[in-house]
Specification:
The chain is 79% helix and 0% strand. By secondary structure, the protein is an all-alpha fold. The radius of gyration is 22 Å and the shape is globular. It starts with a helix and ends in a 5-residue tail after the last helix.
């Protein structure tokens, strides 16, 4: 799924809507924002649904929606329908990360190796998200029809894979003694659970989520940090391909080389970074990663020299190898044992809200100020994240 979304959002749709259809950057940003709105608005409900209905049904329904969205994108050229298709793709992808993070939190709870497991997941995710734009760069120069056809084939494969995911798990004890043991275990477990984690009969879902977040005892600065972490990425997503092609004058093949180089640094660094995070904590990795990312973004906006572009791209890749597992590890340690899917859904919704606003801001910055402006804003967001994290650590030294 990340291969399909990466190929569409990073390469195919910006080129298709910008070059083929002649739409302004703001229109492309609105289409991208609709995708992120659909994704983030339903992440928490999707996480809740996955815990009740199982991964198989929840993910299969989502992947069918993405398949329908790609069909619409490949057959219509009206901007309105493209925006609707992007929103549908976002709705379909909403269950993915609550399901993934809930399961990773579950299997990591005994050992505490969140960083290592998050690193493995990020390799799978970034591998697809990085390979998608590279492949689409090669194919889009020949035929948009063939590129969309390949993505449709990929989504059919993804739907088939979703049918093999775990379904709803049910405990079916065969003897009265097993029933008694399970009830005893549940009773012992419930005594240690904060009552706020359990939805009361007749309680509205909104009130339940508000009480759930209050009971987590989280530093209030985490919420703007969740927003800024994705905003820094969202403000670059719609324009990065256009910037490389129109401003730097690089060919799609050279852009592929940059993507492969920066992505390889990130992927290769995820596992060792995750293991070190499990041993020493996420503080040093987040601080270094935020500063390095800000430096790389400022550098990319300030030079046209290819050697320096390579330096800054590799620095950006290295910074994300530190940020991604460290950030997810920090969040994983805040998730309660109960309602993992719902809490992860809330975290991911707040975090993804930056991906909603980022593309809209990006398009306006590009059209009204300069092509470099989105890079400066993204770098400023990274510096602000460094400051927020530094304040959080000073006030809550126990944050790992």
């Amino acid at each position: 799924m990340e291969f399909v979304k990466g190929g569409l959002l990073v390469t195919l749709l910006p080129l298709y809507m910008g070059h083929r259809l002649g739409l302004p950057a703001f229109a492309i940003g609105v289409a991208f924002a609709s995708q992120y709105i659909g994704d983030n608005a339903l992440r928490s409900p999707a996480g809740w649904m996955a815990e009740r209905l199982g991964f198989r049904l929840t993910m299969t329904l989502g992947m069918l929606l993405i398949l329908a969205a790609v069909i619409v994108m490949s057959t219509v050229q009206h901007p309105g329908w493209l925006i609707v298709a992007c929103a549908t793709m976002g709705i379909g992808s909403a269950p993915l990360w609550p399901c993934v993070m809930s399961k990773i939190t579950d299997i990591s709870s005994e050992t505490g190796n969140y960083g290592t497991h998050m690193g493995i997941i990020e390799i799978a995710s970034l591998g697809g998200a990085g390979l998608g734009p590279v492949v689409m760069n090669w194919l889009s120069s020949d035929s948009y029809t063939f590129s969309f056809g390949m993505l449709l084939l990929c989504m059919i494969v993804v739907v088939v894979v979703a049918l093999f995911l775990p379904g709803r798990t049910k405990q079916r004890p065969s003897t009265l003694s097993q029933v008694a043991n399970i009830e005893a275990d549940q009773t012992d477990e419930d005594t240690s659970i904060d009552p706020a984690y359990v939805r009361k009969p007749g309680e509205s879902r909104l009130h339940y989520y508000v009480q759930l977040m209050r009971s987590l005892n989280i530093h209030p600065l985490l919420y703007p940090a969740l927003f800024m972490q994705s905003f820094a990425l969202g403000v670059l997503t719609p324009i990065i391909t256009l910037y490389v092609v129109s401003e730097l004058g690089l060919t799609p093949a050279y852009f592929n080389a940059l993507l492969i180089g920066g992505g390889a640094v990130t992927v290769l660094g995820l596992i060792p970074a995750g293991r070190l995070i499990d041993r020493v904590g996420s503080k040093l990795f987040l601080r270094t990663g935020f500063l390095l990312a800000a430096t790389a973004l400022l550098g990319l906006a300030s030079t046209h020299a290819l050697p320096w572009i390579w330096v800054f791209v590799l620095c950006a890749g290295f910074s994300y190898a530190m940020i991604l597992p460290a950030w997810n590890s920090l969040l994983a340690n805040l998730v309660p044992a109960k309602e993992k899917g719902a809490v992860w859904g809330l975290f991911l919704t707040l975090q993804g809200s930056g991906l909603v606003l980022g593309p809209i801001v990006s398009g306006k910055l590009w059209d009204d100020i300069s092509p470099q402006a989105p890079f400066y804003v993204s770098a400023a967001a990274m510096l602000l994240l460094f400051i927020i994290h530094w304040v959080m650590i000073r006030q809550r030294p126990n944050i790992r």
